[in-house]
Structures are given as structure tokens and as C-alpha cells.
Design goal:
heterodimer; A: 326 residues; mainly alpha; 15 helices; 71% helix; globular; B: 714 residues; alpha+beta; eight-stranded mixed sheet; five-stranded antiparallel sheet; 21 helices
């Protein structure tokens, strides 16, 4: 298995270089360094001299990918891409446009993102699996029919509706929790997390329950289930011990891969609920055209996604003894 | 979700479960407000946007400020002991009388004396040991290892504000690493600043040739036009006469900066911890920044060393009746802490204001009908719902202008000839700005008659300030000229019934805008509909701001929309947007229309450096007449701003120019606490209902389960 993991990690290097190139291309070919300078220097009284100084201070006065005027290897190394991208591989993200250290900022914002994402993920997973198993248990009954109808209704509603409706109904009309905000004062901070968690789970419950129900239904008529029933096991045991375990592989495909990405937070929820996590950090950076932050977040997202995929493969091996990683 | 909500019950320990603030803050003298986007810079040499001024204007103190209550806007001393009277000199350095012609004035000398005894906020940069040596100016690696925020320094100090601190800050405007946005303006005026900036750039490049070198010591380089006279006096010498300099000197760009603070933050290791002067302002103002988390919350607290400043005893007519002079003569500031919470979205911001968790709010467009109602006479008033809550509405016309500009370099709509003028005037008449204000701004704005907004010298209300090319005066009020007149002008311009007389093709106008998104579509359709009345076809080219700016720089636009907010309350700050040498194309200036009329340019040069006087007003009138005749802009809108304050907030008066106004506000925390509790009683029945529904749903499920378990296999 170690050889497999090592090989996958080595494969990751060209992938990350490609991701870097793509981010770089999107930023610098769509927006020239002059555009970025104007964006950051403000809308008023921006002179060519100020733009030149801004670019020089960031090394944006160099050629993008190939420095024809340089000699030897500097043709490649004395470029914006090389100077700003190589450091990423040692997780040196540099400084944001507001002069704050990006690595430090990511470290500070990871906590709030995880505070929302991790409980939402765990409680959500438990909820979706339980509801799906419940529907499967009552399959072909009115509980199943109306449960599926409810799922279709829930998944047809936009996430924004859950956000705005949740804030209005639970936060404003019923005054049960703060409408938005984030606290770092210990247990009292939990009340800020309840509404975004509830909204995050509610927004996904329809889709996920239906998906998992399908996975379970595929298993429910297989021979091993019939055998389990023939042995006299009750239906709960059949579902939770046998069916759940065998349906785990398709579930894990979608679940394990997102675990590392939980650090990156949620773009919509964090913005609407005023949570100072990495999701809102990314959105802000995109709006502000802060290349350094966007590039760092895309890079980090890619790394975490690759880690997620490797973990998924490992998890297959753990839940299914037939799977071997070479 | 029900389970989650049920969990909320034991967690919520506040009287109001939805109170977003810590329980111990209840009843305290704290102002709660919000910021919409995180500030980029808090360094007074760099900061140039209103969301940053919300913070630093309470911390940094330039020598002058705007009088809080008086209108028109008036400068008064802040840290200065008096307003300086400039001394004018000729080329030989001989004094000239006050009324000397502008052309004869080679230099203006401003001598500014500051009040003694003003002290900086407590800060580690000022901390000294028993021998008087700064404690933290040579931090070791071991010391740095324990430092993560400014609060981690155990010792603080202060010192008296001196004139040299102001001189240091003016020098900082030229620092190549700071990119101060006012350097380009100031180096044309402050004697020697251009050379000084060039000198610093060279030195900076030399020191940083091999990576990040040592910080520039600005004290080593003298600046000819700015000098310290004595401990409390400094002198600024500028080229020629430039009265707006005093307005600039009321902005944070000219606030004092203690050199030792600069040195403190220049130490290696602090920058890596995000401890920079750009993020940790150090000033003499009424407040100091004690919590600096732009991702969530910024907190200003009362500066314990703040000097004895008093609430103004005079205002404009009506201020006494409005209760704005009730605190006259009382010591400032009134509020102990100001908590700014990051609130990016309108809906939670508005709802929290209604719950009493923000003390003031703007009126979001989507909530306008909830907050404001129109009276029978067409005026606006606070809605009954808001009135019941004791909320006050305050309105003011912004010192801004949003206009539609013609590119004067365009072969169709541009040019300084009668054909093009008539075409532009026809379009100006056809676009009904009053209707636009009514539909898209909920009536929040007034139709502009020229570039100068109300509140600025040169603006004349009513028919006296009428743009007679687009309006006529009917019963002492402006009335838009008729469409038939627009059609006549269009025909005279060579486009009868909207078609080119030579080719017979319909006239097509391209409209460039940086406004994108579905919400803007209705507005663009409205513009197209307006021009369709003249049979002119409008093609909207909405693009992102970068592309838009690029088009403007290259002169590729035909008709476009843009705006300008006043830097200072002087007509020069608006008329320069039409000054020829200030053109966007070729000049990289702010004249986006590329309007260049020698007659207007001459008048502008005459009036720009005059003091406000009948002569200046006359010249402004002449310049406006030329601009209105040429119609390089469809003059657009001066927006009206609406703000709402809760009943417990006192002394609020909108001020379009001043930013340091939080020190004047006063709170009634007891009333706020009472109202908040009344408005936010938790409604418990939904929790019981959700729990009940879950239980009720379980019963048939259990029945079904039992039935299945008992049944035989099929």
C-alpha cells in the first residue's frame, strides 16, 4: 500500500503544476498585471508611475512565462510564473494584497471553517444515512412514497432559499438563534453554528437521502440479504449491519474525498452567516482579484482533493477485503 | 433540523437567545455597527476609501477637521491651535498681499502650530525602560517568539505629539513602498516633493537590490517644502496658490506619524506575524483599535490619553430644535467602545438592525418600502412600522455625481461642433433622469444640472442653477424639455427620425457600463426604451470593471456611465473632471469624456485657485454654461442618502465630508437593552411543534414496523 500511496503522491506533482499553470493562465491572460494594479490601487488618481511601482514591487514587471531577454536558465526562472509558483510546493504562499501573510491567515481561518463544516458533515451524514435506511426499511409503503416526494421537494429548493428562509424564520421571527455572526467565546459560540449547520444539512438532505436510498435498494435484494433474512435476523440488523456495510463503497466515493476539503469551508454559508472561514476568504479574494490568495486557495484545494482521493482508495481497502492497492 | 433546534435551548444562555454579543456587554456604553468589506489598508498614507476611513478617521488626527454641525462645510482646527493663513511669496521670495493676483504668486507658505499636550494612545512602540531606552525597538528572536499580537507586549508607553510627526508623515507620502494615492497630486504642489520621491525611489532600489533590504530612514533625507520650525510648529511651502490644500490637510494623509512607530514596525519578524503599520494604526484620536480581526470584528476603544475636546456649541439653523446642541460643551467622546462586525450581506444586516443589534443602518434597496413611505406631497418619510420602533430617518444629498458621459473623441457623438452638440443635447433630453430616479432609486436622488452637487460652492438651487439646454423654468421649477424638441435637435444634427440622413441607416449608440448582473438588466432596458423614443437604437455593452477601464483609457467607448465622490468640498474637485489636460486618453487623468474645450479650460484655470468669492462664482457660472452647451455629460444624478438610527442613538447628523464623527455620538444603553429584550423574546412553540411532529410521525412508523415484523414472508 505504501508504494501505491507514494506513487499517487508523485503523480500529484505534475497535476499540481498543471493546476498552477491553469490558475496562472486564468488570472494573467484574462487580467493583465496593469488591470490588477488598477484594481488594487483604487479608482481615483491612479497614475502610470504608481502602476509601474506596484508591478515592480510584486515582480509583475517580468515576462509571464518566458523571459527572452534573460540568458540561460533565467529565461524560465526570471518570469512571473516561476517566481511566484515554485514556493507553493513548500506551502509558502507569500503575502496577500493587503500585506497579510497568507499562510497565517489560512491557519487562523481554518478553525471557523471546520467548526461549521465538520459537525455539518458528521451530523449530515448520520441524518442522510438514517433517513435513507428508514425509507428503505419502509420501502413500497406510504412512508417511502411520501418520503421520496419530500426529498424531491427539498432538493428542488435553492440553497439560498434555505439560507434566507432560515435566517428570517428561525433567527428573526422566532428569535431562537443569532441571524449571523461567529463567536469564539467557548460553548456560547455554539449558538452561532446551529443555524448554518441546520441550513447546510437541510439544503442537502433531499438529494443525499435519495442517493443513498438508491444505493441501499441496489443491495436489498441481493442473495446475501436474503440469506441473512432466512437466518432469522430482524430487519434492523439486516439493514444496519449487512446492507449498510455493503453499500458503503459508493457512499465512500462521495464522502471520503470531501473530508480534507472540509478545511476549505463553504463559500455560500460562510458569506451569508458572517463566518470568518476559508470559504469567505476565497470569495473575497476572487472579488478583489487577489491573485496570491486565489492561487494559494486553489493550490491548497488541489492538494486536499488529491489527499481525499488517496484516502478514498485506502478506505475502499478497509471496507472491502477484496480490494488491494498496488 | 428539529433536533438541532432542540439542542439550541440549553445552549442559549442569553436573555434574548438571538443576541449575537457576549452577555457581559449588555447595558454597556458600546456602539454596534457593521462593516461590509474588509479594509485593505489602515495606513494613513495609503488608505483612500470610505470603508477604511470609518476606522482610521477615529484614530488619526490631521491638523484640521470639518465642523460637525455647520453647513456649508467649514474647516476648523483639530490638533492645530488655529487655522493657518497662507503667506504668498513671489519668485524672489518677497511677501505679497493677501489679495495678490494668482499669477503673481510663486509660493504659498502655511505655518501650522499644533496644540501642546496632545498625547498618543498607549502603544509598545513608545515603551521605554528605566534608562529611557525604547524597550521594543531591537526585538530579539526570543522576544519575537512570544509575540503574536500587539497585546502580547507587556509594556506600553506614550509621548506628546510634536510637529515633527506631521513632517514625517508628509515624507511618508513619497515612500516607494507605500504607493500613496495622493503623491501624484501633492508632488505638483509641495515644494521639493517630486525630487524627494525620486531620491527615495533610487535609494530604495539600491537598498533592496538583493532582496528585502533595511527600511528607509526618512529622517536622513530632507524635504525642502516641509520643515519643522519648533516643537509645535511646522511649515509647508507649495508652488503657486492652491486653497484646496487645507482640505487635503483635513484628510488622514496628513495625520501625524511618530517616527519611532514607523521604526518599531519596520523590525524584521513583525511583518511575518501580520504586525504592520498598515494594520495597527497608532494615533492621537479619541479611539484606538484594540481588536483587529478584519475577518470578523474590529473594535475601537476610548483612548485613555485623549485630550479635552468638547462638543460644538454652534450649528446651523434647526440643530437646536433637533436636539443636536443638547450636549454642547460636553467632553468628547461619549461612547466607550465601538464594535464593527463584518456583515457582507444586506438581509442579515437589515434584520439585525431591526432586532436592535445594530444601532444604525443604511436603507437597503430591497427593504426601502419597509422603511420609507412617500407622503402626499411626494416627499419621503419614515414608515409607520419604523416610527413605532422609534427609528429616525436622516437624509442628505451626497457630494457625489453619477453621470452618463459621451466620449468626445468618438466620431458620432463626440467633437466640438454644432452637429455633435445637438445630437448630445437631444439624447440628454430624451433620457428622463427624473423617471430613472423614481423607478430605480426609489426617489433617492436629485437630477443634476451640472457636475457640482449641492453643498459645494457654485451649486445654485432651482431655476438659478438650471441647465437651460435640457430644462426650462416653469413656475420656478426645472421642467425637462419636450421630446419634440429633442427630435428637432436630432434632425438638425443630421438624424431625422433617428436615421442618418446620408445613409438612411438608424442611429446606433453603444453604451458601455461596468454594471453587470440580472438586476441591472431592467435599467439597461429602460435606457434603450428612452432612446427608442427618438428611434435611436442602444446597444448595451456591459463588462467587468477592468475591461471597462481599459475601454475608457483607450477611448473605445461611445456612451458610458461613471461617477465621482468629492475628495473635498470645492468646485475644482468636480470641474477638473472636464478639464482638457486631464483627459483619460493620453493623459491618464480623470476626464473620462476626454472633453477638451479651450474656453472651458481657460475658465477652469482662472477659477481653480481662487478663494470663494463673487468673482469665483461668476467664473464657475461661465464654465458651467460652456459645459452645459457642449453637453459632454448627461448630468445624471446626485444621490440622496438615507440612514436610520435607533431611538437610543443621539447627536447623529449626516456629514458628507467628515469621517471622524463617531466621537460626537451618544447612546442610551438602558433604553437599548429594554427595547432589545422586548423585540427579541424567543418563540418557543415551533420547537415544541417540531418535536411533536417527529413524535407523531414515529407512531405510524412503529405500527408499520411491528406489522411487518409479525407478517410472514411473501
Amino acid at each position: 500500500m505504501m508504494a501505491y500511496v507514494l506513487r499517487r503522491l508523485l503523480y500529484a506533482i505534475p497535476i499540481l503544476i498543471g493546476v498552477n499553470l491553469l490558475t496562472f493562465w486564468l488570472f494573467f491572460f484574462v487580467n493583465s498585471p496593469d488591470d490588477m494594479a488598477r484594481m488594487h490601487l483604487g479608482m481615483k488618481r491612479v497614475t502610470p508611475a504608481a502602476i509601474a511601482q506596484w508591478k515592480e514591487a510584486r515582480g509583475f514587471d517580468k515576462p509571464l512565462l518566458l523571459n527572452r531577454e534573460a540568458a540561460g536558465v533565467e529565461k524560465l526562472t526570471d518570469t512571473i510564473f516561476f517566481r511566484h509558483s515554485l514556493r507553493l510546493f513548500v506551502f509558502d504562499f507569500g503575502r496577500a494584497e493587503d500585506n497579510r501573510d497568507i499562510r497565517r491567515e489560512i491557519g487562523e481561518r481554518m478553525g471557523p471553517s471546520l467548526a461549521i463544516a465538520l459537525p455539518s458533515f458528521l451530523v449530515g451524514l448520520l441524518t442522510y444515512v438514517s433517513f435513507a435506511l428508514l425509507l428503505v426499511f419502509f420501502r413500497a409503503s406510504y412512508v417511502d412514497v411520501w418520503g421520496v416526494v419530500l426529498c424531491v421537494v427539498l432538493m428542488s429548493i435553492s440553497t439560498m432559499f434555505y439560507v434566507i428562509g432560515g435566517q428570517y424564520l428561525i433567527g428573526k421571527l422566532w428569535s431562537l438563534v443569532p441571524i449571523s455572526g461567529y463567536g469564539d467565546d467557548g460553548p456560547g459560540a455554539i449558538r452561532f453554528l446551529l443555524l448554518p449547520m441546520a441550513v447546510g444539512i437541510a439544503a442537502a438532505v433531499g438529494l443525499r437521502t435519495r442517493l443513498y436510498r438508491t444505493f441501499f435498494l441496489e443491495e436489498i435484494n441481493k442473495d446475501y440479504v436474503r440469506t441473512a433474512r432466512a437466518k432469522g435476523l430482524n430487519e434492523w440488523r439486516v439493514l444496519f449491519v449487512h446492507v449498510l456495510r455493503n453499500a458503503l463503497i459508493p457512499i465512500l466515493t462521495g464522502v471520503v474525498v470531501v473530508i480534507p476539503a472540509l478545511f476549505l469551508g463553504s463559500l455560500i454559508l460562510e458569506s451569508f452567516f458572517g463566518i470568518p472561514g476559508l470559504g469567505s476568504y476565497t470569495i473575497d479574494a476572487i472579488h478583489a482579484q487577489d491573485f496570491f490568495v486565489v492561487r494559494a486557495m486553489v493550490f491548497l484545494g488541489s492538494v486536499l482533493y488529491i489527499v481525499g482521493l488517496i484516502l478514498t482508495d485506502i478506505s475502499y481497502m478497509l471496507v472491502d477485503p477484496r480490494v488491494r492497492l498496488y | 433540523m428539529a433536533t438541532v433546534l432542540l439542542l439550541a435551548v440549553p445552549v442559549a444562555i442569553h436573555a434574548a437567545w438571538n443576541d449575537p454579543y457576549p452577555a457581559h456587554e449588555q447595558g454597556q456604553n458600546i456602539l454596534y455597527t457593521a462593516f461590509r468589506e474588509r479594509p485593505k489598508h489602515l495606513d494613513p498614507a495609503r488608505s483612500y476609501s470610505s470603508n477604511e476611513y470609518d476606522f482610521i478617521a477615529q484614530i488619526y488626527e490631521p491638523p484640521f477637521q470639518y465642523h460637525y454641525l455647520k453647513r456649508p462645510f467649514q474647516l476648523v482646527p483639530l490638533t492645530a491651535s488655529a487655522m493657518p493663513v497662507p503667506v504668498y511669496l513671489d519668485r524672489q521670495g518677497r511677501p505679497l498681499p493677501a489679495g495678490a493676483p494668482v499669477a503673481s504668486i510663486a509660493y504659498s507658505v502655511y505655518t501650522i502650530r499644533i496644540q501642546p499636550g496632545i498625547r498618543y494612545q498607549p502603544h509598545p512602540a513608545f515603551a521605554r525602560d528605566d534608562r529611557g531606552v525604547p524597550r521594543y525597538h531591537q526585538l530579539t528572536a526570543a522576544e519575537l517568539a512570544r509575540i503574536h499580537t500587539i497585546g502580547d507586549f507587556p509594556h506600553y508607553g506614550t509621548r506628546e505629539l510634536v510637529a515633527a510627526d506631521y513632517v514625517h508623515q508628509i515624507k511618508r507620502l513619497a515612500h516607494p513602498r507605500l504607493h500613496s494615492p495622493v503623491l501624484s497630486v501633492m508632488q505638483d504642489y509641495v515644494v521639493g516633493l517630486k525630487d524627494y520621491a525620486a531620491n527615495l525611489r533610487r535609494e530604495h532600489a539600491r537598498l533592496n537590490r538583493k532582496g528585502r533590504g533595511p527600511a528607509l530612514d526618512l529622517e536622513r533625507y530632507p524635504l525642502k517644502g516641509v520643515e519643522t520650525i519648533d516643537r509645535y510648529t511646522y511649515r509647508v511651502t507649495i508652488h503657486g496658490k492652491y486653497p484646496p490644500l487645507l482640505y487635503w490637510m483635513a484628510m488622514p494623509f496628513f495625520a501625524p506619524m511618530a517616527p519611532e512607530v514607523d521604526r518599531f514596525f519596520s523590525q524584521p519578524g513583525l511583518r511575518e506575524r501580520n504586525l504592520t503599520l498598515d494594520w495597527y494604526p497608532v494615533g492621537t484620536g479619541p479611539y484606538m483599535l484594540t481588536v483587529n480581526n478584519p475577518n470578523r470584528q474590529m473594535v475601537l476603544e476610548r483612548n485613555p490619553h485623549y485630550r479635552d475636546e468638547r462638543y460644538p456649541a454652534q450649528g446651523e439653523a434647526g440643530d437646536r430644535q433637533r436636539g443636536l446642541l443638547a450636549d454642547a460643551g460636553r467632553r468628547l467622546p461619549f461612547i466607550d467602545r465601538i464594535v464593527f462586525s463584518l456583515e457582507k450581506e444586506n438581509i442579515p444586516y437589515w434584520n439585525k438592525f431591526l432586532q436592535g443589534y445594530y444601532d444604525r443602518s443604511v436603507v437597503p434597496t430591497e427593504s426601502f418600502d419597509q422603511a420609507v413611505r412617500f407622503t402626499g406631497s411626494g416627499d419621503t418619510d419614515i414608515s409607520d412600522d419604523m416610527k413605532v420602533r422609534g427609528i429616525h430617518l436622516r437624509t442628505s444629498v451626497a457630494t457625489s455625481t453619477y453621470y452618463l458621459g459621451f466620449n468626445m473623441l468618438d466620431p458620432v457623438v463626440g467633437g466640438n461642433n454644432e452637429r455633435a452638440r445637438k445630437l448630445r443635447r437631444a439624447i440628454s433630453i430624451a433620457i428622463d433622469i427624473e423617471e430613472q430616479i423614481s423607478i430605480f432609486r426609489n426617489g433617492r436622488g436629485i437630477a443634476a444640472q451640472g457636475p457640482i452637487p449641492p453643498g459645494i460652492f457654485g451649486y445654485l438651487p432651482g431655476c438659478a442653477g438650471l441647465n437651460r439646454y435640457v430644462y426650462q423654468c416653469v413656475r420656478d421649477a426645472p421642467q425637462r424639455r419636450s421630446l419634440s424638441e429633442a427630435r428637432r435637435l436630432l434632425a438638425e444634427a443630421g438624424y431625422p427620425d433617428g436615421s442618418d440622413r446620408r445613409t438612411g441607416r438608424p442611429l446606433l449608440i453603444y453604451f458601455d457600463t461596468p454594471a453587470t448582473g440580472p438586476a441591472e438588466k431592467a435599467r439597461f432596458d429602460w435606457y434603450a426604451k428612452q432612446l427608442a423614443r427618438l428611434n435611436i437604437q442602444l446597444v448595451v455593452r456591459a463588462t467587468d470593471y477592468n475591461r471597462f477601464q481599459e475601454k475608457m483609457r483607450k477611448g473605445d467607448a461611445q456612451l458610458f456611465e461613471w461617477g465621482w465622490n468629492a475628495d473635498y468640498p470645492d468646485p475644482e474637485n468636480f470641474l477638473f473632471l472636464l478639464y482638457g489636460p486631464n483627459k483619460k486618453v493620453g493623459g491618464e487623468g480623470e476626464n473620462a469624456s476626454n472633453y477638451d474645450n479651450p474656453e472651458f479650460n481657460r475658465l477652469f484655470e482662472q477659477l481653480k485657485n481662487l478663494d470663494d468669492s463673487p468673482q469665483r462664482l461668476h467664473l464657475i457660472g461661465q464654465a458651467l454654461e460652456v459645459a452645459r452647451r457642449d453637453a459632454p455629460w448627461i448630468w445624471g444624478v446626485h444621490p440622496r442618502q438615507y440612514t436610520l438610527d435607533h431611538a437610543w442613538l443621539h447627536n447623529a447628523k449626516p456629514h458628507q465630508m467628515a469621517n471622524n464623527t463617531l466621537k460626537y455620538l451618544r447612546l442610551d444603553p438602558a433604553l437599548r437593552r429594554e427595547r432589545r429584550e422586548a423585540w427579541n423574546r424567543p418563540v418557543r412553540w415551533p420547537l415544541v411543534l417540531v418535536g411533536g411532529v417527529l413524535l407523531a410521525g414515529l407512531i405510524p412508523a412503529v405500527v408499520l414496523y411491528r406489522r411487518r415484523e409479525r407478517s410472514t414472508a411473501a
